[in-house]
Write a structure and sequence with these properties.
The structure holds two protein chains of two kinds.
Chain A (H helix, E strand, L loop, with lengths): L15 E6 L5 H11 L9 H6 L9 H15 L3 E10 L10 E12 L2 E11 L5 E11 L2
Chain B lengths: L13 E4 L2 H10 L10 H6 L23 H5 L6 E10 L8 E16 L2 E14 L5 E12 L1
Antiparallel strand pairs in B: 1-3, 2-5, 3-4, 4-5
The chains are: A alpha+beta, B mainly beta.
Chain lengths: 142, 147
């Protein structure tokens, strides 16, 4: 929470965002997210149910990952306003996985007097499995 | 194969007033410790009128109306893959706002891949601020349904 406001002039295409590692995704967090989001799919907190479907164990909600990725983006883009955010899912994140968030500035551009950047982001587990890939467009007034 | 009659189908609109505690609960669930989601004074210090919603909070408003989205379209969960999500943001939404939102099936297209034929379904939910009639968000969901 001590990142300073982004100076748009100092941003450049190809610049990498600092990596951030999450805490392990615990069963408690999966239950918290089920309740907060309303997604009570048993895959996310009933281990025997998840195993019956062929999974190793409980998996994180795709939208939980998107939520955490949104935090990663906004914590970095201090002073910016999110205009667009999209994600696709490549592999599940399992209970107890630690997610590393990475990002890179793809484009720096102006549109209708708005100062914008487009960034690519991804999440990777401790086993280097990429679970999601996404992109976001952020507007800066600075 | 999904019935093409659903292209353009609109679900009943819904309405939600956003309470502060629900935002805080959501922020905690995604383990975002930014105090703006927990403390009204912090939110105001950062220029918000009230506690703001985190960017994926609108996942709670992905499907409008009383009818189940999947049952209505006849989507079999065993044949379904999440093809991705997208949000577009127009105006800030904070606690106390009443949002009206409506889901529309944008398109159903057939594609063929290594796993055979599938339908790509896109649905868009537009959320507006009830009081000001401002657009707040679009939530776009892409579903892959194998034949």
């Amino acid at each position: 929470m001590t990142n300073k406001i982004i100076n748009y002039k100092e941003l450049s295409e190809g610049m990498e965002l600092p990596e951030v590692k999450s805490d392990p995704i615990t069963r408690v967090q999966l239950v918290d997210y089920a309740s907060a989001s309303g997604d009570y799919n048993l895959l996310h907190y009933d281990e025997s149910f998840a195993k019956k479907t062929g999974l190793k164990g409980c998996i994180a909600h795709g939208m939980l990952q998107m939520g955490m990725m949104g935090s990663y983006i906004l914590n970095w883009a201090k002073g910016g306003t999110l205009k667009n955010f999209k994600i696709r899912y490549l592999a599940p994140a399992n209970e107890n996985d630690i997610l590393t968030f990475k990002g890179k500035i793809l484009k720096k551009f102006q549109e209708n007097d708005e100062k914008l950047i487009e960034i690519n982001v991804l999440t990777e587990t401790q086993e280097k499995r990429i679970t999601t890939q996404g992109s976001a467009i952020i507007s800066f007034n600075t | 194969m999904l019935d093409r009659k659903f292209i353009g189908y609109e679900f009943e609109p819904s309405e939600r007033t956003i309470p502060r505690w629900k935002i805080t609960q959501f922020a905690n669930a995604i383990r975002d410790t930014n105090p703006i989601y927990y403390d009204l004074n912090e939110a105001k210090k950062q220029g918000y009128k009230d506690i703001p919603v985190p960017p994926t909070f609108f996942t709670r408003m992905t499907y409008s109306g009383k009818k189940n989205f999947y049952a209505t379209l006849g989507i079999d969960f065993q044949k379904l893959l999440d093809g991705g999500r997208e949000f577009k943001y127009y105006s800030q939404c904070v606690a106390g706002d009443t949002i009206t939102y409506q889901t529309k099936v944008e398109n159903v297209i057939e594609k063929e891949g290594s796993r055979g034929k599938m339908d790509i379904v896109t649905a868009i939910t537009r959320g507006k601020n009830k009081e000001t009639n401002e657009d707040i968000f679009d939530a776009i969901i892409t579903l892959i349904v194998f034949h």
